[in-house]
Structures are given as structure tokens and as C-alpha cells.
Specification:
Layout: H1 7-14, E1 38-49, E2 52-63, E3 66-72, E4 80-85, E5 88-93, E6 98-101, H2 104-112, H3 118-124, E7 137-140, E8 146-151, E9 154-164, E10 167-177, E11 180-192, H4 203-206
Antiparallel strand pairs: 1-2, 1-11, 2-3, 3-4, 4-5, 5-6, 7-8, 8-9, 9-10, 10-11
Length: about 210
């Protein structure tokens, strides 16, 4: 999963054109997030640590506290699946190797060598602090939307949103901790108030929502 340098990563991110933040005055985070216990997003993640870089596509699904994260590098390389709940986490690699642990972040690091904040992202991506961690520092932009959150040594900045199911959801985030920088680009959100499958809208359609 390690790349020879940052060059490929820079070229990859160059294809993710920056879009201006929507100027609609819709608060984020806002009330009602607990109404969506089932949710899913698809996107891309890139990570720089020192002079090393890595990137992957990802699909993240959650249903009432149980989650599944699928990560795959270019051309499906180094694919892995992470399943977690209150009892612990299981990681399965493309070659069938399995590992289990209580700490998702430590498990990913032991398998890949990368510090990827799984435990925090599942909350931060929805605009709420991780409940089991230290208190978060939060600031908002001029429209009342979450612009920055600091928690557990990570500095999380939100720079782009789409309006989905009555509220704004992030589609671009950057997370920094020391010499580690993670960029998350979300291409599609799906939300549901219950059941087994998330089911409303994707990021492109969401931009047309009232």
C-alpha cells in the first residue's frame, strides 16, 4: 500500500476539483442526526505521513452501531474489510487473513502501517464528536455550519457540503495530526431512518435538493 513518494498522491488529488462551499444558511451539524441510524457513504481517502503517501476508495456502512468499512487501493490492491461493533473489530484482507482487536485504529495500523482514525471518523463525518473520547473543540463558519473540530489530537476541517434529507452533510474533510494528513472526499451519501439498507440520495442529486 506504500507508494514511492508523494507525487502520485498529488496527481490523484489534483483530479478532485475544489468547489466553493454552498452559501445556503443551513446549520451543520443540526438536530435530527439521530433519526438516521442506518447510513452509508462512498468516497476516496488519501493519507500523507512524512514523505509517504497512500490512497484508496472506500465504502462505509453503519446500521444501529454496527459498521463495515471496505478499503481498496488502486486496481483493487491491498483491499480490506473492517467490521466493528461494541464488542470489538475484525479485519479481513483480500488474501483471507483475519485479525481481531478491541481498538479499530490500532488494528488498521498493525495491518497497514498507517494511522487512520476509524473510531473518530465514524462520528466526525456526521459532524458530531466521538462520544468515548475527550471533549471536542468546535467552531462554525459564518453560516452556522461546522467548520472545524479538534478532538483526540486530530484537527478536522470541513470545506464542502451537500444538502441531503433536510440537512447539510460533508463531502470534503481534511484531518491532521502531527505529520499525518488525511483527506476524505465523499461522492455519495445514503441515509435511512431504519431497516437494513440505507436509501436516499447521492451527492450529485443532493445539490438539487430544496
Amino acid at each position: 500500500m506504500r507508494l514511492p513518494g508523494v507525487l502520485i498522491l498529488v496527481l490523484y488529488l489534483a483530479g478532485c476539483a475544489t468547489a466553493p462551499v454552498d452559501s445556503g444558511k443551513r446549520a451543520f451539524p443540526g438536530p435530527g442526526i439521530e433519526a438516521y441510524p442506518v447510513w452509508q457513504f462512498k468516497g476516496r481517502v488519501s493519507l500523507i505521513q512524512g514523505e509517504q503517501g497512500w490512497h484508496a476508495s472506500l465504502i462505509w456502512r453503519e446500521a444501529s452501531g454496527r459498521y463495515r468499512l471496505n478499503l481498496a487501493g488502486p486496481m483493487g490492491q491491498a483491499a480490506m474489510q473492517l467490521d466493528g461493533d461494541r464488542d470489538g473489530v475484525r479485519l479481513r484482507t483480500a488474501n483471507g487473513e483475519e485479525r481481531t482487536a478491541q481498538d479499530a485504529d490500532a488494528l488498521v495500523k498493525s495491518a497497514t502501517g498507517w494511522q487512520f482514525p476509524v473510531a473518530g471518523i465514524r462520528y466526525w463525518v456526521r459532524g458530531v464528536p466521538a462520544p468515548a473520547a475527550e471533549a471536542a473543540q468546535v467552531s462554525t463558519d459564518e453560516y452556522g455550519r461546522l467548520a472545524r473540530m479538534q478532538q483526540s489530537g486530530w484537527d478536522i476541517r470541513y470545506s464542502r457540503f451537500k444538502h441531503v434529507a433536510g440537512r447539510d452533510w460533508p463531502t470534503r474533510m481534511q484531518l491532521v495530526a502531527g505529520d499525518i494528513s488525511v483527506r476524505l472526499v465523499i461522492d455519495e451519501w445514503q441515509l435511512s431512518s431504519g431497516g437494513d439498507a440505507a436509501g436516499t440520495t447521492d451527492a450529485s442529486a443532493a445539490s438539487q435538493a430544496p
